Amino acid sequence: MSGLTAGANGVYVIAVTPFSGDGSIDMKSVDRMVDFYLEAGATGLTALGMMGEAPKLTIEESQAVVRRIIARVSGRVPIVVGVSSPGFAQMHTLTKLVMDEGAAGVMIAPPSSLRTDDQIVSYFGQAAEFVGGVPWVLQDFPLATGVQISVSTISRIVADNPNCVCLKHEDWPGLDKIGALRDTEKLNRRIAILCGNGGIYLPEEMGRGADGAMTGFAYPEMMVSVVKHHSKGEMDRARDLFDAYLPLARFEQQPGLGLAVRKYVLAKRGVIAEPTLRRPGAPLSASTRQDIEVLVARQEHRLRELG
Amino acid sequence: MSGLTAGANGVYVIAVTPFSGDGSIDMKSVDRMVDFYLEAGATGLTALGMMGEAPKLTIEESQAVVRRIIARVSGRVPIVVGVSSPGFAQMHTLTKLVMDEGAAGVMIAPPSSLRTDDQIVSYFGQAAEFVGGVPWVLQDFPLATGVQISVSTISRIVADNPNCVCLKHEDWPGLDKIGALRDTEKLNRRIAILCGNGGIYLPEEMGRGADGAMTGFAYPEMMVSVVKHHSKGEMDRARDLFDAYLPLARFEQQPGLGLAVRKYVLAKRGVIAEPTLRRPGAPLSASTRQDIEVLVARQEHRLRELG
Amino acid sequence: MSGLTAGANGVYVIAVTPFSGDGSIDMKSVDRMVDFYLEAGATGLTALGMMGEAPKLTIEESQAVVRRIIARVSGRVPIVVGVSSPGFAQMHTLTKLVMDEGAAGVMIAPPSSLRTDDQIVSYFGQAAEFVGGVPWVLQDFPLATGVQISVSTISRIVADNPNCVCLKHEDWPGLDKIGALRDTEKLNRRIAILCGNGGIYLPEEMGRGADGAMTGFAYPEMMVSVVKHHSKGEMDRARDLFDAYLPLARFEQQPGLGLAVRKYVLAKRGVIAEPTLRRPGAPLSASTRQDIEVLVARQEHRLRELG
Amino acid sequence: MSGLTAGANGVYVIAVTPFSGDGSIDMKSVDRMVDFYLEAGATGLTALGMMGEAPKLTIEESQAVVRRIIARVSGRVPIVVGVSSPGFAQMHTLTKLVMDEGAAGVMIAPPSSLRTDDQIVSYFGQAAEFVGGVPWVLQDFPLATGVQISVSTISRIVADNPNCVCLKHEDWPGLDKIGALRDTEKLNRRIAILCGNGGIYLPEEMGRGADGAMTGFAYPEMMVSVVKHHSKGEMDRARDLFDAYLPLARFEQQPGLGLAVRKYVLAKRGVIAEPTLRRPGAPLSASTRQDIEVLVARQEHRLRELG
């Protein structure tokens, strides 16, 4: 697989990490999940993201998961791997491991201690050195990291680091930020902008100039459809489909709970064998499972109406 | 108006504070807004909440706004007033002012410095003394305050303070928390639970035992409908209506931007004269206004389909 | 009194607000405290700072305290007043009140929600408009505010706002920052730099180019001595005195506890009648009082040795 | 070496990790540092603490450093190893590695996401399972972690986890907390309390019932002396020595800068070959080095005076 480029677009699904009931990695489910995502129209996959329970894996497990995903994908789409680490030595080690396995690039989120623009620019400059020439994705997710990265700061990072090829855009609110980044004066070159937040702003994000999504949702076909219809100028159809999925997408977007919802639905759909989260993740309450069942049934009904 | 009680239910709309283009308070719009909220079916109003731009008002202005709202409501529904302050002396002064004007109760959010359970319990115990026998609402909104209040902590606060009659529930995720609070073992007496978050989880919140909503949305009739149909057991109808409004509700729920969206729509609907926010609030971008127009048009279309 | 200027220097003592045992403001102690600070060599006073329990006062009380301080000072030194507020309307009102009373300038700390450089610059630009032509002090105290202000951001604020005449420097660590700000390339004009942190880095701060201190310590004569001896080039003498006071200064510098320590010592010295803090401030434990007594006794002994 | 017990006392020095100028680990300096700490009177060592640059090491490097320290100590004192990790899998792996090497116990700090008492109790309960029967130290350091752990929460953790044998006490202010924990009613059994904060409150901490220190300072002999003289009831002598070191200890205690100061002094004393920090650590400015030189010279002078 050649490397990730600034031309990335479509839907890079953030892959979950499937576990068996005993907490071990369920490699058969990894394979099925990869097939499912690609059949749904994913143009890329992202492994070991925050929603991939990355911090709960040992480095050996991280390597094994990435290896399995890459083997199953077999070059059909690029694989991005999250390598955010408490220190640069670990980031360097993990990056080398996964690039050797065949990843197309890595993704880096800032540590929560960063505050000033200069601190942020300096951090990514050093991180870029430690990942060493590998194409990388800048993860901009203030709700999770506590770090706010202004448009001018992104501009400096992009100018300083030729290997920064993509922004995983997850600022909230963030629509005007996409517009500002697409203003040709602001960045010295075009990078890919793939959006997060579980896809719940995807129609508007595409309208502002995003290239697609890099996020998770138990129905990735929603995101694929929105991007596809947007590219054909069929915005009403894109929004009709989006609206049908939105009640569940909104429910899945609850922080701290969303991954358990996603795994529950993926298991229900037969994609993964078990909805298990590794500890400290807790199972869903009966009431929450019931809420999901109602939402899924209504969603199926609405999709049939839409044809 | 008699005081707020633990029997509060329905929809307490968080009132915006209307400003003229020059930044002064627009009292005529206050009147029209009150009429609009009551015609939409509000069972109460909440003034000077976070979304009422309370910190941007002088104390004289706060008093004037509350006086005007109360005069216009003229006893038809209870008025709750946000009195969160950096110190207890200010909280005491503001509480006395608004209760003298005829408010039914006050609402208190915790300062962001609180961390441990004991600190939170102690803070509300002292606040209760300073508001002095007035019925009060505990505002539980971790996304804004940074303070997480566990079920057992709420239980201690309720047990300690007989005048704590209502929880403004805005934890996220927070559905299981409602369920836990409704578990008869957890609280020593029943208090009202009115939910926030712009109403975007209202069907599920009602299902868990909430008594209604205390939040804002430019279409308060959505919340009124959901509560009404839920009370009649017509959950499918409640959800059909909810789903029709959800694309816009989701858009309005963007933090930091949402109030400008709400005021834009309220001005568009003729409720307030101008969408102006007091500084440092910024006006909406042209792209955002266009997004709203699309969402409103689609919403109207969908509502006509639903009949 | 004419206004505060960029030539401010020496020791601006952060005044405590003395309360009687019943929590009311003790105006007689205000007078005695003013006399004490001026006799100790203060070149200015700062009222309603964070350590002045400002948020615990009503606006009427704030005005009364400032009026009393200014009356007692009677033009001998300039009075700076903290006007940090949750909103600009309140900041404007308080500023007008205290300048009418005869204050020389105001001090503004950033709200904890600010993160990016642009947000910080924009905030102070707007605040400067709202205080309206009054000389003001930029309070840079990340430990308390959570806001980190880089040298380049301070430079932008100083360039944008001619009335920003002084930095209350309280970053930690912050010595190199003073040096950077004194580098003639960094600021377009010289502003006063007065340092905080209870004076526990004062010798080093003076060495880096500070103009003095703006902070509190129950023995302000320590800070006056350090500044005086530094100005004469008697650094060893300055450090000898500093070292004698350091064990107590370090103890008083404990956050959250320090003000109670300071008031305890000021009461012990006969400066204020009671060590009372307004609630939620708690009284000192017996063990803490005992620690202070030991530290004061040893300090007196050491000072006698030094002569 | 047998395991760490609740009888731990004296001075557990937080070991730095020495690097060569090229950033590689300098094992010869590790040996010299171990000898130096033991000759200074350390009763234990703590490796891979926050001040040991632990997050900057790969897991192989972490293992190598711990192995070297343990080999050099050769059973003379117990070695505690910091194993705080983003996830339990990594914590488990690292714990197993270092216990196999011969460590006496591990130290665990809470992740910054924890807020409520229940969340904290639950986290340590799960962590205790993952470290699996190994004696462990609870690190209570709110300034660095953002997590505040109340006395009653510590009490619950100690009651739930028999292998929690020691508190690394670094709350600030925290003296009354030690007193509360020593109150026999509060804990169901006595655990060791070793204090942090660079030793700058050590005399008072010992007075409240601490068993010693677990922290770093370039002159560990200061802490050893304070503990020793305190145990003999020679508090004046303890304080005389403490006061002589305090000006430098205070300087070294600046967060973010302190480790560079410590390594500079350790290199100056010949303990480690180079003062190098791994990136992103920056070298000291010339002015800071000059400040240190003045402080060291004055300290030596004062110690000679004291005899």
UniProtKB/TrEMBL annotation, chains A, B, C, D:
InterPro entries: Aldolase_TIM, DapA-like. One of its GO terms (molecular function) is 4-hydroxy-tetrahydrodipicolinate synthase activity. The keyword Metal-binding does not apply. Keywords: Lyase. It comes from the Bacteria. Belongs to the DapA family. This is Dihydrodipicolinate synthase family protein.
